[in-house]
Amino acid sequence: MVKFLRLRGDEIRSPGGTLILAFPCQSEDDHRVWWGLGLAMRDAFLSAAADGYLDNDVVLRHGNSMGTRTVEQVHEALEQVKDVWSIEHLSQKDALHPGYSSYLEACVGAGEDQKRDAYVDFARTLVEMTYAVYTPFLLQAIRKAKNNGSSNGAEVGASGANEEKELIEKLKHRSLGYYCEREMGSPFWIPYIYVRLGRK
Q1: DSSP string, 95-144
Q2: Domain architecture of the chain: domains with CATH
Q3: What is the pTM of this model?
Q4: What pLDDT, on the 0 to 100 scale, is given for residue 57?
C-alpha cells in the first residue's frame, strides 16, 4: 500500500491534489462479514484436494485467506507517507452488498423454491466477485505446485487454459454449494475503508 500511495503521489499535482480511496477491509467483527464465504471456499478447496483435483500445499496456502487490511494497517501505511499525503478523512463503514436487496425483492410473494433460487443467484454473485479477485493468485499457486510436484498425488496439472478454467469452475460450484448450505437467506456485509488524502 505504501508503494501504491507513493506512486500516486508522483502522479497527482502537488500541492492541492486529492486522492480518494474506498476498499474492502477487515472490520472489528470480521467473523460476521467474511467468515461464511471464507469457510465455503476452504471447504471447496479441501474437497477438491480429497478428490485429487488440488494439491494440499495450495489448500494450506490459499484455503482460508481473504487478504483484507485492518484499519490499523491502513493507518500504519499512511504514517509512512505523511511526507507526501495529509489525511483529510478516514472512516470505516459496513455496506450491505447491493445484490441482497434484489434477493429480498425477489422473495416478495415468492414460494420457498423461488426464494431459494433467488438466494442462490445472490450467492453466485458473491462467489463470482471473490473468485474474480482471487483466481490469479490461486492459478499461480496451482502452477507452482505442478512444477514442484504434487504433495498428495493430485492432478494439479491443469495443462492449459481450458483445464485451468474447468478447475476454477469446479471450485466456484463447490464454494457456492457450501455457502448456500450454511448461509441460506443471510445478508452479506462488506466493511469498507473510505479515505480522502490531500497532496502536500
Answers
A1: EE-HHHHHHHHHHTT--HHHHHHHHHHHHHHHHHHHHHHHHHHHHHHHHH
A2: 2-199 (3.40.50)
A3: 0.77
A4: 80
